[in-house]
Design brief:
- Strands 1-7-6-5-4-2-3 form a seven-stranded mixed beta sheet, sandwiched between helices. A five-stranded mixed beta sheet has the order 8-9-12-11-10.
- It is of the alpha/beta class.
- The chain starts with 8 loop residues before the first helix and ends with a helix.
- Helix content is 41%, strand content 14%.
- It contains 17 helices and twelve strands.
Length: 402
């Protein structure tokens, strides 16, 4: 079989993101398939022993083992890198594999990390529990306070790590300001961009060094497979991240990569329609509940900053009820259309109670400091007719006395 025929990157980088989401990274075999091929293989063969030695020595291009490279996975990596405006990307088995690798590949005992307080529960577990086990200190700051980032810097600070919009409170970090503070101090920034995707926000454009994703979310977008990605310079991906992933094995399967490739073909359509739906639902909710947070609403305390950094508000709404966990659970139980689920980024509308699901592993004190209250709900708005979603929420709100 002949080698795959890839694209000229000098051409693909000039394409706009919607085009890159469909075409970016495609490499075809001699069969000329239109849909990307799935290479379900663990290993690869060589024409001679010398070729095997040359590939392992890095002297010859080519595949060796799917823990290191796989043609289908490489197509997804190139597509994500193109959309992100990054030199390179590395895909992994899940979003948390990507977050963990992005941190551990470059940290050592004695280093210090500054992290935003509002984050996915497992990301806070990394900074609060895992890193200290290896002698890596972390300081948690209010990500919306630029001065707090600057004040937290120490001589041994290596990384800033944050998510914007944050999960699940939708705090917005000022990308340009915080990345500038980091650069002035010689600190690298890792941004979790899962809520926005590169179609709504590109952190590298604001000075971020590394962008990490749960591609499980909007990139697949249909609740099918797990996947993660880390984007950055070619030097970082090849010389820092690759050795970590090669030897620890958080490998993305070729099948999952293919599913995400298919999902990305509709990413531009889905995220824009879902953002439109979310805005309409958020406008309803802010009139019916004690507090509703959505970056696209003028009532969001950081609306102006969000709209400066993002081209739309995204798919997630934070809903706050005054009746605590019992009222929040009651609303969930009264839903008929919207599913109770801890996932996000799906084409179906999903709602969850973070305190008892995604952030249950954190202490009550940490949850309170993050703004994850007992009466808080997180709503992922999907592709359904927004009026049907509003009808469902209206019924559920009435059922709990709202």
């Amino acid at each position: 079989m002949k080698k795959l025929t890839g694209q000229d990157r000098s051409i693909t980088t000039t394409w706009r993101p919607a085009t890159q989401a469909v075409r970016g990274g495609t490499a075809r075999s001699h069969f000329g398939e239109t849909s990307e091929a799935i290479f379900l293989t663990s290993g690869f063969t060589y024409d001679c022993a010398g070729d095997a030695a040359a590939r392992f020595a890095g002297e010859q291009q080519g595949m060796t083992y799917s823990r290191l490279q796989n043609p289908t996975v490489e197509m997804l990596e190139e597509r994500i890198a193109l959309m992100e405006g990054a030199e390179a990307a590395r895909c992994m088995a899940s979003g948390m594999a990507a977050m963990t690798a992005a941190l551990l590949c470059q940290l050592s005992a004695g280093d210090h990390v500054v992290a935003g307080r509002a984050a996915f529960g497992s990301c806070r577990w990394l900074t609060d529990t895992l890193l200290p086990r290896f002698g890596i200190e972390s300081t948690i700051v209010d990500g919306t306070d630029n001065d707090a980032w600057k004040a937290a810097i120490r001589p041994n600070t290596r990384l800033f790590f944050f998510e914007t919009p944050a999960n699940p409170t939708l705090d917005i970090v000022d990308l340009e300001a915080v990345c500038r503070i980091a650069k002035d101090a010689g600190v690298l920034t890792i941004v979790d961009n899962a809520f926005a995707t590169p179609l709504l926000q590109r952190p590298l454009d604001y000075g971020a060094d590394i962008v990490a994703y749960s591609a499980t979310k909007m990139m697949d977008g249909q609740g099918r497979v797990l996947a993660g990605a880390v984007c950055g310079t070619k030097e970082f991906i090849d010389n820092t991240l690759l050795s970590f992933t090669r030897n620890t094995g958080p490998t993305l399967s070729a099948f999952n990569a293919w599913v995400v490739l298919k999902g990305m073909e509709t990413l531009d359509l889905r995220i824009r329609r879902q953002s439109e739906n979310a805005l309409q639902v958020a406008q309803f909710l802010e009139k019916r509940v004690p507090r509703a947070l959505y970056p696209g609403l003028a009532s969001h305390p950081q609306h102006a900053l969000a709209m400066k950094q993002m081209s739309a508000g995204g798919t997630i709404i934070a809903v706050y009820l005054d009746g605590g966990r019992s009222q929040a659970h009651g609303l969930l139980d009264a839903l008929e259309l919207i599913d109770i689920s801890n996932n996000i980024g799906d084409s179906r509308s999903l709602m969850t109670h973070p305190s008892s699901t995604t952030h249950a592993g954190l202490s009550a004190e940490v949850r309170a400091a993050m703004g994850v209250e007992e009466g808080m709900l997180r709503l992922n708005v999907g592709l359904e007719d927004p009026l049907d979603l509003i009808d469902d929420l209206d019924r559920a709100l009435k059922a709990v006395g709202l």
